[in-house]
Amino acid sequence: MSDLATPALVYFAAALIVPFIRWPVVRALFLLAVPVAALASFAFAQYGNYSDLPFFDLHLTLFRLDALSYIFALIFSIAAFFALFFAWHIRDTLEQVASLVYAGAAIGAVFAADLVTLFVFWEGTAIASVFLIWARRTEGAYHTGLRYLAIQIGSGLLLLIGIILNYRDTGSIAFDHMELGSLATCLIFLAFGIKCAFPLLHNWLQDSYPAATPTGTLTLSVFTTKLAVYALVRGFAGTEFLIYIGAAMTLFPVFFAAIENNLRRVLSYSLNNQLGFMVVGIGLGTPLALDGTVAHAFTNVIFEGLLFMTVGAVMLRTGTAKASQLGGLWKSMPLTMIFCIVGALSISAFPLFSGFISKSLIVSASADSGHMIVWLVLLVASVGVLEHAGIKIPYSMFFGHDRGLKVKEAPLHMLIVMALAAALCVIIGVWPQPLYDLLPYPVAYAPYTTDHVVTQLQLLFFAILAFAVLIRIGRYPAELRSVNLDTDWLYRRFLPDLVTRIAVAVRTAWHALARFAAYRSDRTLVLLFRTHGPEGPLAGAWPTGSMVLWITVLLGITLVLSYL
Amino acid sequence: MKTYITNWVLIGLGVICATLAAADILRGHHGTFDVEHLPLFYCVFGFVVYAALIFLAKALRRLILRPEDYYGRTSTDAEKEADNV
Questions:
Q1: pTM
Q2: Which of B36, B57, B84 sits opposite A317 (nearest CB)?
Q3: A389: which residues sit within 8 A by CB, 6+ positions away?
Q4: SS3 A271
Q5: Do residue A472 and residue B1 have CB atoms under 8 angstroms apart?
Q6: Which residue of A9, A265, A339, A555 is surrounded by the most CB atoms within 10 Å?
C-alpha cells in the first residue's frame, strides 16, 4: 500500500467529486458506493501497520489495522452507508459533502497509529460536522453551530497541547496505552472526555444535535462520540476514574430525558447515557468489559441510529420532533412505528434484541469486579433507558395523545434503511456469535442463561407496569412546550449576563470618572478664565505710567542693594 | 381523554408480570451480590426505581423548566423545525 493511503481518502476523494455530479439519482448512488468502496479497501487486508510517512523528525503511521480499529471502522462504514441512504432525498450539496468528509475523518482517526495523525482527523471531524448543523440555515442553527465548533476545536487544541507535552516527556507520538499522571496525558484525557460527553462537559451534545437537519442529526449521532470511545479504549483502558465518570454518565441524563419535550434531544440524552455504559466498561478494563464496550458501541450505532431515523422520518412527515405536538401516528406510519419499537426494544436490552447481548457484558463485568454500587447504578440506569428511549420515544410519537395528524408513511428509501437497521438489531440479538468473534479479546460469554433472561424480563416488565400505572393515575409527566436548563445555561445565560453586568458596571464607572474629570477641567478653565480671561486681572490693559513707576522702583532697589 | 393504556393492556401486563414473578423460582441464585438473592428482587427493583425516576424527574422539572424561547435567537428551540412533506 502506498505511503499516503488510508481508507479515509476514499471519502475525501468522493467529497471532491460529488459537487460535479449533476444528476440527483446518479449522485445518490455514487454516495452510497463510497462507504462500500472504503470498506472494501480495508476489510480484506491483513492486520498490521501500513502507510508510514516521515514527517520532519517524526514518524507518522496513517493506517493501523488491528481488531480494535477494524471493528470501529466497520461500524462507521455501516453507519455512513445508513446515513447516506437515509438522506437519499437530500439535494443539498453542502450536507452531502460534509457527511462524506465527516465520516472519512472519523475513519481516518480510527486508523491513526500516531497522535499527530489522530489530531488532524480529530479536528477534521469537528470542522466537517458543524456544516451538518449550519445546513439547517437558520439564525439559531448558526449560533448553535458556533458554540459546537468552539467546544470541538477546543477539544482539539487540548489534544494538541497534550501531544506536544507528551512528546517532550517521552519522545514518542505513538498512540498507545497511556497512564494518567502527567499534565500531558491529563490534557489528552480531557480532550477525549469532551468529545465523549463526560458529565459537565456533555452539554454541547444536547445543544447541537437537535439543531441539525433531520438527516444530519443521524450522521452526527454516530461518529464524534464513538470516536472518543475508541480513543479512550485505545489510550486509557483500565483507568479506574473512568468507572465513576461512566456511572455518573449513565445516570444523570435519565432525569433530563424523562422531562424533555424535543425527541431529538431526548435521544441525545439517551446517547449520553449509552456512552456512560461504554465508559464504565473502559474503566473496568478487563477483557470482558472492554469487549462489552466495543460490542455496545457497535450495537448502539445501529439501534440508536434506528431511533434517530424514526424520529427523522416523523419529522419529515409532520414537521416537528416535539412530543407536545405528536401522538397517534401508529395509524398513518405503522411501518415506522414497528421499526421504532424494534429500536426501543434493542436499546432497552430486551432478550433477543441487540442491546441485550452487548450491555450485559458490561453489567456482568461490573459485578465480576465487585463494584456493587456501580452495578446498582447501571441497573437503575437500565430502567432509565427503558423509560426515555424504550417507552417515551415510541409512545409519544405513535400513541400518547392523538393529535389527529394525517400524514403519509415514511418515504420508501427511509423504510428500507430502517428495515435494514431493525433487521440487524434482531439478527445480532438472536445470533450474537459473529459479533463476539469480531471483538478484540476472545470472549466465552453466554448471554442467554435462564437467570439472565428471567431477571432482565422481570426488571423491564415491572418497570413497564409502573409506567402503565402512572399513566392511568395521571402521574406521568405531561409533554410541555419548554426548554430545560442544563450546564449550557452557564455559558449561554449566566456568563453572558455576567459579562453584560460587568460591562454595565465598567461603563457606569467610566462615565462617572469622565464626568468628574470634565467637572474638574471645567473648574480649572473657569479659574484660568477668571484670572487670564478678558475681564481677568492678568489680562487687563495696564497704563504705561504704572509700568515706568515699577521699573523706577526696581532700579531704585537695585541701586540701594549694590551700595550696601 | 382517550388513553392507549386500557384496562385490557393493564390486565395483560399484570398477567405477564405475575408469570415473571412466578418464574422467580427458576432463578438459580447465581448472582454476585447478596441483594440479588432476595426473592423478587428484580421485580420490586424495576417497579420502584421506575416510579422513583419519574417523580424525581418531575421534581427536577420544577427547577429547570423554562419557556421555549428562553435562549432567544441564539437557539433553534423556538424556530420552525422542518418542512413537512
A1: 0.91
A2: B84
A3: A257, A266, A267, A270, A307, A344, A347, A348
A4: helix
A5: no
A6: A339
A-contacting residues of B 24-83, CB under 8 Å?
A: 24, 26-28, 30-33, 36, 40, 42-51, 53-58, 60-61, 63-68, 70-71, 73-83
**pLDDT at A534 (0 to 100):** 82
The alpha-carbon gap from A389 to the nearest alpha carbon of chain B, in Å, equals: 13
Beta bridge partners of B51: none
Smallest Cβ–Cβ distance between A458 and the set B10, B20, B71 belongs to B20
Q: Per residue, what are the HEC states of A383-409?
A: HHHHHHHHHHHHHHHHCCCCCCCCCCC
Say if CB B53 and CB A384 are below 8 A apart.
yes
pLDDT tens by residue, A170-205: 999 999 999 999 999 999 999 999 999 999 999 999
Provide the CB-side half-sphere exposure for A37 (13 A, CA).
16
B36 contacts in chain A (CB < 8 Å): 455
Measure the CA angle with vertex A309, ends A143 and A40; round to 5°. Answer: 100
CA-wise closest residue to A360 among A487, A284, A300, A446: A446
SS3 content of chain B, % helix, strand, coil (to 5): 60, 0, 40
pLDDT in tens, B16-72: 999 999 998 888 767 788 888 888 999 999 999 999 999 999 999 999 999 999 999
Task: Show contacts of B25-34: CB within 8 Å, 24+ apart.
Answer: B26/A450, B26/A451, B26/A454, B27/A450, B27/A451, B27/A454, B27/A455, B28/A450, B28/A451, B30/A451, B31/A367, B31/A451, B32/A367, B32/A368, B32/A370, B32/A375, B33/A367, B33/A372, B33/A375
Distance from CA of A490 to the nearest CA of B (A): 12
The nearest CA of chain B is from the CA of A60 a distance in Å of: 41
A258 touches chain B (CB under 8 A): yes
ipTM: 0.95
CB atoms A472 and B77 under 8 Å: no
H or E segment at A62? strand A58-65
**DSSP readout, A277-319?**
HHHHHHHH-SHHHHHHHHHHHHHHHHHHHHHHHHHHHHHHHHS
CA–CA separation, A389 and A262 (whole Å): 13
One-letter amino acid for residue A495 of the chain? L
Q: In 3D, which of A491, A74, A14 has the Cα closest to residue A294?
A: A74
Alpha-carbon span A263 to A402, nearest angstrom:
17
Q: Given B17, B26, B28, which is nearest A462 (Cβ)?
A: B17
